[in-house]
Amino acid sequence: GENVEQHPSTLSVQEGDSAVIKCTYSDSASNYFPWYKQELGKGPQLIIDIRSNVGEKKDQRIAVTLNKTAKHFSLHITETQPEDSAVYFCAASRGNYGGATNKLIFGTGTLLAVQP
Amino acid sequence: DGGITQSPKYLFRKEGQNVTLSCEQNLNHDAMYWYRQDPGQGLRLIYYSQIVNDFQKGDIAEGYSVSREKKESFPLTVTSAQKNPTAFYLCASSKGPGEQFFGPGTRLTVL
Q: Do A46 and B94 touch (CB under 8 A)?
């Protein structure tokens, strides 16, 4: 079945360093790839997303890259700050491909800790 | 304020009881979703609805039921048939293909 693998499960960095989280998806029909940030006890919030017609997208300190051939996509956070500490989830979706609904398949999450 | 609200924030259930979790959105979104989150796992889809009066099972629908009588509301009932209901439940909505907006969640504990 459809699957998204996410690595690493935990990541500790020093403030100011970069953090990279990687995901691999199995469904070649996936065309939408969001990244969510979840703080303790709260619902996930979208921080950036990318569609399959582009290879990279950047928003200030956050960037996402997509390699469709390898079915990999990654989240890059530069100049990390303590408030970046949270759990990050990647996800993949077919969108409306083939009449399917916008069903998101989530990775298992990465706990990012930014040490001051 | 536009957004998704879930209630209650915390819910305790005795074994054998049914409980209903509320989810309301005022974003005028057509699609709504229910996810379950367990420690160390990603979000798993329970049920989804693309339009009023229609809904489909997700990956882990057993022991759950939903209704979609109004566009704004998508309540989830956790029945006594759900053997391990203790979890964090998240509701989401979307306009179409693309971003799903999540509510703050309900933490359900079975006593």
A: no
Cβ-Cβ pairs closer than 8 A, A with B, add up to: 63
- Going by C-alpha positions, the residue among B72, B78, B64, B70 that lies closest to residue B20 is B78
* Min distance A114 CA to chain B CA atoms (Å): 19
CA pair distance B22, B7, nearest whole angstrom: 5
pLDDT, one tens digit per residue, over B33-59 is 999 999 877 899 999 998 899 999 999
DSSP-assigned letter for residue A44 = -
Neighboring chain A residues of B48 at a CB cutoff of 8 Å: 101, 103
Pairwise CA distance, residues A8 & A23, whole Å? 9
Omega prior to A8 cis, within 30 of 0:
yes
- Among the partner-chain residues A36, A96, A107, the one whose CB lies closest to the CB of B97 is A96
Distance CA B87, CA B39 (A): 8
Q: Is B74 exposed, middle or buried (0-12, 13-18, 19+ CB in 10 A)?
A: buried
Confidence of residue A114 (pLDDT cuts 50, 70, 90): very high
- CA distance linking residue A74 with residue A33, whole number of Å: 10
Place of tokens 């996800």: A91
pLDDT of residue A99: 47
Pairwise CA distance, residues B44 & B93, whole Å? 15
Nearest to B42 among A34, A89, A102 (CB): A89
CA distance A37 to chain B (A): 11
